[in-house]
Design a protein that fits this description.
Blueprint: H1 10-24, H2 32-42, E1 49-52, H3 59-70, E2 74-78, H4 85-89, E3 90-95, E4 100-105, E5 112-116, H5 123-126, H6 128-135, E6 137-140, E7 143-146, E8 152-157, H7 170-173, E9 178-180, H8 187-200, H9 213-224, H10 230-245, E10 249-251, H11 255-271, H12 279-290, E11 295-296, H13 307-317
Parallel strand pairs: 1-8, 1-9, 2-5, 5-8
Antiparallel strand pairs: 3-4, 6-7, 10-11
Helix pairs in contact: 2-11, 9-11, 10-11, 10-12, 11-12, 12-13
Length: about 325
């Protein structure tokens, strides 16, 4: 990996993100759009991502690949019904040799944490992540311990209709900056997966780091300098507010939803090499940023109306601002 300057321009971020995505796609084939949304989220403070989809669709591979290519410390927790909060956060254990209690940090003390099949653990264990995801620290026995910088969670879950799962509470869903699905590959993409595996002659794909922790933080700092014009900012507010007034929504998105749009849109613009956000960025990202933050009318279950369909309808109905030409 070459040395990366700490003061990055949007074009520098675009170039680096392109290299990151190209390397990740050596392992994850045919999912560029999904990978771009995930990388956009990771480039935001509190950029936690929830991936909900069927088993076998590379959800775990996506998380481990990003950790390897971004050069971040990586830990994985397999969530199960008997997992305890202390298995996530760690705790104090008695050291008989020294005759005192010693702190044993749990796997949450890392840069990128994969919470695999998070909805298979009990709500009590799921809630162990809440403080860490929101406050960036963990409290053990009254002592507050800061988490490493950066710290992000990529959580995977199976659809809630599967047996033996616990739906995530709304308070925890709201902590995820984006929620998305990977989806099945096309026949051509699946054939490419098989071809590469046959030629590789092993399951593991050796990925090379493109950045490191310091470079990743420099990319985040560049994202924070991306400009958001007042009309675009108000557009984010209008979209979020429209979910609260929708006739098929019981609980609309909170201001955390509009903040998620702000963060994601800035990162998406930087991925495109721009130092400003366009309304189209906001329109494109709204379903991933807002869909999991609304509660639909239970009467819609019989017609299988999805939260994404409702957000798409909101996006179609809210007027899009027209910006002056920046050239």
């Amino acid at each position: 990996m070459t040395t990366i300057p700490t003061d990055l321009s949007p074009e520098d971020v675009r170039t680096l993100c392109g290299r990151v995505l190209d390397e990740v796609e050596r392992a994850v084939i045919g999912k560029r759009e999904v990978l771009r949304v995930i990388l956009s989220a990771l480039l935001c403070p509190g950029g936690h991502v929830l991936v909900e989809d069927n088993p076998g669709l590379a959800k775990t591979l996506v998380a481990s690949s990003f950790a390897a290519v971004l050069g971040l410390d990586f830990k994985r927790i397999q969530f199960t019904p008997d997992l305890l909060p202390g298995d996530v956060t760690g705790g104090y254990a008695y050291d008989t040799a020294r005759g005192r209690f010693e702190l044993r940090r749990g796997p949450i003390f890392t840069n990128l944490l994969l919470a695999d099949e998070i909805n298979r653990a009990s709500p009590k264990t799921q809630s162990a992540l809440l403080e860490a995801m929101q406050e960036h620290h963990v409290t053990l026995e009254g002592t507050t311990l800061d988490l490493p910088e950066p710290f992000v969670v990529i959580a995977t879950e199976n659809p809630i209709e599967y047996e033996g799962t616990f739906p995530l509470p709304e308070a925890q869903l709201d902590r995820f900056l984006a929620k998305l699905a990977v989806g099945y590959p096309t026949a051509e993409e699946e054939d490419e997966i098989l071809r590469r595996r046959a030629e590789r002659r092993e399951d593991r794909v050796a990925l090379r780091p493109v950045t490191n922790g310091d470079a990743f933080l420099a990319m985040r700092a560049a994202v924070e300098r991306v400009h958001v014009a007042p009309p675009v900012r108000r557009y984010m507010v209008d979209l979020t507010a429209a979910t609260r007034g929708h006739k098929q929504v019981v609980v609309g998105a909170s201001p955390r939803g509009s903040l998620a749009l702000l963060k994601l849109a800035r990162a998406w613009a930087a991925l495109e090499g721009r130092d400003y956000v366009l309304p189209d960025d906001v329109k494109w990202l709204a379903p991933w940023a807002l869909g999991h933050r609304i509660v639909l009318d239970p009467g819609l279950w019989s017609v299988q109306r999805s939260d994404r369909a409702v957000v798409d309808e909101v996006v179609r109905n809210v007027p899009v601002p027209v910006l002056e030409d920046r050239r």
